[in-house]
């Protein structure tokens, strides 16, 4: 009986996150069939990474904001503003590419400090502060660019988002370096998963049976290596994928293991209890928005590098894509729930659907309808899951 109860807890307790991975695999398979395999071609997989990397970067910051019980509507405008600052420094004033990067990051920090102050210390809801920020930063973008686009960036700046690491280890028709890095990543993931499993066992928490755990590890390894194999047969390992992997690992560790991460979950889960437990709510909320500003700047650098310029309309609607990625990836509307890897998977689901429909020649208006329905269903599932859990309680 105890074994059956543990199995039920494993299945129901992780239903939402498990469903995300199953849905992702199903969507990839669905569009792979409909596009005649074009979706999984080496060139197209590389394009997906390049085209949606900045949305995934924004999703990392957005899921932290949502876990803390907030929302940020300004990130698209911040992407535009930080890209504009970088373009003015590098293209118009002739500074080296790294000065543009530092200028964009500094702008992101200032944006985060500005919004964090109003949310954390003045007490204005984040929805209002960032809605105002969306207008303010878009207007500042127009001012910085004088209502005109700036291009092109020097080749070194373009390599931030469009460069590749290949040929370092050679290879007979494919890039061995990409495969080696992927294998190291898989090994690291398996070691980390094994340590987490042993930790749960030491605290008498339920864990999957060893055959199921081994199957999960094999599935992850197979998917990652298949993806790397396709990249190795295209242009190699994208620089932006290396950046994205670093951010995922770093922020995943921060949210799981650091005091800051635990406090963010505590604030989003129960604000009153967090205050009574001694959590410095104002300080945590302030740094949540500073962090969002920095990641928006990183996304702005990647986007401007990818587009090889800065435009007044850059980043339009990016905030909606980032919010959708977080919710589809398992974040709860009420806060306190969500993971970085879930947000990444949610962003990949949105990117895969968009790319698949583009390959099929689906009308843009219909694409928007489909993406909206997916977001609605994801939030509806979250609401249903909470009601079911409350009923069982």
Question: How would you summarize what this structure contains?
Answer:
The chain has a single domain (2-166, 235-392), classed as ABC transporter involved in vitamin B12 uptake, BtuC, CATH 1.10.3470.
- The unreliable regions are 1-13
The name CATH uses for the topology is: ABC transporter involved in vitamin B12 uptake, BtuC
Question: Which secondary-structure class do the elements indicate?
Answer: mainly alpha
Characterize the largest beta sheet: strand count, sense, and whether it forms a barrel. 2 strands, antiparallel
Q: Could you estimate the helical fraction of the residues in percent?
A: over 70%
Residue fraction in strands:
under 5%
Describe this structure in words.
There is one protein chain. The chain has 393 residues and is mostly helical. The chain has a single domain (2-166, 235-392), classed as ABC transporter involved in vitamin B12 uptake, BtuC (Orthogonal Bundle), CATH 1.10.3470. 77% of the residues lie in helices and 1% in strands. It is built from 16 helices and two strands. α4 (75-92) runs antiparallel to α5, α7 packs across α13 and α14 (318-328) packs parallel to α16 (364-392). Residues 1-13 have low confidence and may be disordered.
């Amino acid at each position: 009986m105890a074994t059956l109860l543990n199995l039920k807890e494993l299945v129901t307790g992780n239903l939402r996150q498990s469903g995300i991975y199953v849905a992702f695999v199903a969507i990839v398979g669905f569009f792979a069939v409909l596009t005649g395999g074009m979706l999984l071609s080496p060139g197209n997989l590389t394009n997906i990474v390049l085209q949606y990397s900045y949305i995934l970067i924004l999703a990392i910051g957005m899921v932290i904001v949502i876990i803390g019980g907030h929302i940020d509507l300004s990130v698209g405008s911040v992407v535009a503003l930080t890209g504009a600052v970088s373009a003015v420094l590098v293209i118009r004033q002739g500074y080296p590419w790294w000065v543009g990067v530092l200028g964009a990051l500094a702008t992101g920090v200032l944006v985060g400090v500005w919004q964090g102050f109003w949310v954390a210390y003045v007490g204005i809801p984040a929805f209002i502060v960032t809605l105002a920020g969306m207008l303010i930063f878009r207007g500042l973008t127009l001012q910085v660019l004088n209502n005109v686009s700036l291009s092109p960036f020097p080749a070194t700046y373009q390599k931030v988002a469009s460069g590749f690491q290949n040929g370092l280890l050679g290879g007979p028709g494919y890039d061995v370096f990409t495969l080696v890095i992927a294998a190291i990543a898989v090994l690291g993931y398996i070691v980390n998963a094994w340590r987490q499993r042993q930790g749960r066992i030491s605290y008498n928490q339920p864990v999957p049976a060893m055959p199921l755990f081994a199957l999960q590890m094999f599935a992850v390894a197979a998917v990652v290596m298949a993806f790397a194999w396709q990249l190795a047969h295209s242009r190699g390992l994208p620089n932006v994928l290396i950046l994205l992997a670093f951010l995922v690992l770093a922020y995943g560790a921060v949210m799981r293991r650091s005091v800051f991460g635990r406090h963010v979950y505590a604030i989003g889960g129960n604000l009153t209890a967090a205050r009574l437990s001694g959590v410095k709510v104002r300080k945590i909320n302030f740094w949540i928005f500073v962090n969002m500003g920095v990641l928006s700047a990183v996304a702005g650098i990647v986007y401007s590098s990818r587009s090889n310029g800065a435009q007044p309309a850059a980043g339009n609607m990016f905030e909606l894509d980032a919010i959708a990625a977080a919710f589809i990836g398992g974040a709860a509307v009420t806060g306190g729930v969500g993971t970085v890897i879930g947000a990444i998977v949610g962003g990949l689901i949105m990117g895969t659907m968009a790319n698949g429909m583009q390959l099929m020649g689906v009308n843009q208006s219909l694409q928007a309808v489909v993406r909206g329905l997916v977001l609605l269903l994801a939030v509806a599932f979250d609401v249903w899951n909470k009601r079911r859990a409350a009923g069982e309680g």
